[in-house]
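An example makes the point: we print one protein in full, the chain in one-letter code, the fold tokenised, without further comment:
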Amino acid sequence: MKIISIQNNLGIPKYKQIIHSVEKAIEEENLKKGEKLPSVNKVCMEQSLSRDTVLQAYDEFKKRSNYLCYSW
């Protein structure tokens, strides 16, 4: 199941869309505590995003809490 969804026409920064997608997956219990987020490279390839964009979103999670483990 894809947990990250990006829409180019929203006018919302893509890193914030990543954050929102993951938060939604947590709320809907599609992603549970201790589960890994998709790797940065996988998200970059699937969503046609730059590595910096994905890292910005993942770093934001790291700042917020240690709730999720994620892989690089």
About this structure: The chain has three helices and two strands. The mean pLDDT is 85.
